[in-house]
Amino acid sequence: MSWLQLYDHQRDALQRMKNGCILCGSVGSGKSRTALAYYYLQNGGDIFSDEYEPMDDREVKDLYIITTARKRDILEWEGELSPFLLSTSHDVNLYQNKVVVDSWNNIKKYVDVTDAFFIFDEQRVIGNGTWVKSFLKIVQSNKWILLSATPGDTWQDYIPVFVANGFFKNRTEFTRNHVIFSRNTKYPMVDRYVNTGRLLKMRNDILITMDYKRATVSHKHDILVSYDESMYKDITRRRWDIWNNKPIENAAEFCYALRKCVNLDVSRQVALYEILEKHPRVIIFYNFDYELDILRRLVIDNEVEITEWNGHKHQTIPDSARWVYIVQYNAGAEGWNCIETDTIIFYSQNYSYRTMTQASGRIDRVNTPYTDLHYYHLKSRSPIDIAISRALKNKKTFNENGYLRTHTQGALFTTGKNDWETPQDLFDELDAEFHFTLDPCATPENAKCKKFYTEEVDGLVQDWTGETVFCNPPYSNVQQTEWVKKCYEHGEKGDVAVMLIPARTDTRRFHEYIQDKAEIRFLQGRLKFGDSKNSAPFPSMVVIFGK
User: Fold this and answer.
1) What is the spatial distance between Cα 428 and Cα 434, in angstroms, rounded to a whole number?
2) Domain spans of the chain?
3) Do the bridges between strand 190-193 and strand 179-181 make them parallel or antiparallel, or are there none, so unpaired?
4) Residue 430's closest CA among 543, 540, 514, 546?
5) Topology match between the domains 8-210 and 424-545
6) Closest by Cα among 214, 506, 211, 239 to 368
7) Is 458 left (phi over 0), alpha (psi -120 to 50) or beta?
8) What is the band of 181 on the pLDDT scale with cuts at 50, 70, 90?
9) Which CATH class is domain 424-545?
10) Nearest residue to 312 (alpha-carbon basis) of 300, 335, 295, 298
11) What does the DSSP 8-state code read for residue 466?
């Protein structure tokens, strides 16, 4: 039996690892121990013997581990080093070599190091900043490997590692051979990648995946909480920051105000207390300082110890029977582990899918004593919470500007428009005639009927049978064609659908679904949509299907 406990997926990875590789394993898969085992083997060690076999002290390379500031500060790597009788302390270290654990912020200090072994922990070599430049200098004169659960989302994320492995001379060569930029943007934007077969071969050559079957079972609990709908609609309509008494100036401020309205609701705190009653030891992740203020005021009995990790405090996980550990996403979503609890509460969701995944992995470790892990997500049915959840479900990062474009008219912040709110007097006139029962493409702020569908629900895939529909669809060409077709099909079934759309008689959809198939009422002049002071830049028409 080996002196070093390794799982099968770790042993398999060791057989495939080489200099310059990326050791890729999901959060909690044991990348750190595997990396040190590789270093130990490369320096003359033997992981297959029954007892620890010392490395050849004359040949042992200095070891530099570049990691997150948090991992460095809580001495997590010290624990990983100890089975190999290695330590950053010269008095404790069995060998004469130098062992350094430092953060990415200090990587520039080591650009002159030569003939050493570097472990780059967590993927930080993206782009072309100081960290990347220092990384590329270091790898020219040293052995190295990189550890990451998420090595890259796009091919550009791999450029520094490709250059470090000699696949390209520099970023320019990669761009020249594999990137096509869009011609219709004001700044460089990748349109597509070419010759990706070559890129796949390069990536497969250096990517060492650690696949293993987890013994844990994750239980996701979506806890529904309330929110102040009146305040939410008022913020949306007035674009006013009620806390600082000033106008909202951009999409970031707009989404922040909506989230604050939602997250301050007392129902979220009540739900939190109910969860804490069930679980004695809990980690709580949060985003904003106002949430921290709420969490700090938690009234729990004196037996519960509360500590936190954020930009204000760097406290350790409590060592008691009952505790709450409050962690800010940006400060502590990665770089530490906890096997003393089976429960994480997400007081609010982070925009980033990667951050949410990293945060979840804090308790899902190879050596956890728990089988069932519980993740509580506090969510409301507010449009902002729904949109964030949808982005995360699709493994994407929530985009504030995109949300603004699709969920509001956005006139204050954008020049282009896709949604145009129906003038109320026009709707009232039509409603008196048709008595509408459904608005299938609305937001909670501009819905014209009691029954309505938002973008998240997607009215295009819903059954409208028996409904008298009023439809003012998104005004992009692709989306509008789909809505016109849906309303046409609704009318063919014998039901009524009334559309307010631009009078564009030169389009294919007009000739295919409207002309000679529906009643058309062209409106005189140009409408003023919503609370706009200016008229729309197009004429409009009312199209009636099924009458």
Assistant:
1) 10
2) 8-210, 217-407, 424-545
3) antiparallel
4) 543
5) yes
6) 214
7) left
8) confident
9) alpha beta
10) 295
11) T
Residue 160 has pLDDT above 90, yes or no: yes
Phi, psi of 268 (to 5 degrees): -70, -40
Residue 413 has a pLDDT of 38
Contact yes or no for 127/103 (Cβ under 8 A): no
**C-alpha Rg value of the chain to the nearest Å:** 29
Residue 215: pLDDT band by 50, 70, 90 thresholds?
A: confident
Question: Among candidates 275, 256, 257, 270, which has minimal Cα distance to 226?
Answer: 270
3-state secondary structure of 67: strand
Separation CA 158–CA 202 (nearest Å): 10
Residue (of 74, 70, 7) closest to 37 by Cα position? 7
Please state, in angstroms and rounded to a whole number, the distance separating the CA atoms of residues 43 and 64: 14
Cα end-to-end distance, the chain, whole Å? 81
Continuous H helices in 394-473: 400-407, 424-434
For residues 422 and 472, the answer to whether their CB atoms sit within 8 Å is yes
CA distances in angstroms from 498 to 42, 491, 522, listed in the order given: 73, 9, 13
CATH of 8-210, one of 3.40.50.10810, 3.90.550.10, 3.40.190.10, 3.40.50.300: 3.40.50.10810
Rounded CA gap, 348 and 285, in Å?
7
Provide the pLDDT for residue 478: 64
The CATH number of domain 217-407 is 3.40.50.300: yes
Q: How many CB atoms lie within 10 A of CB 533?
A: 6
What number of helices (H) and strands (E) belong to the chain? 19, 20
How far is C-alpha 212 from the geometric centre of its chain's CA atoms? Answer: 24
Please report where in the chains the tokens 């990451």 appear, as a residue. 148
The pLDDT of residue 56 is above 80:
yes
What digits encode the pLDDT tens for the residues 391-400? 999 888 999 9
CA distance 411 to 405: 9
Cα-to-chain-centroid distance, residue 418: 25
CA distance 34 to 10: 6
φ/ψ of residue 512, rounded to 5: -85, -35
Question: Cα–chain-centroid distance for residue 41?
Answer: 37
- For 16-134, strand residue ranges (E) read 22-25, 63-67, 99-103, 117-121
> In the structure encoding, which two tokens stand for residue 328, read together?
């800010």
pTM of the complete model: 0.60
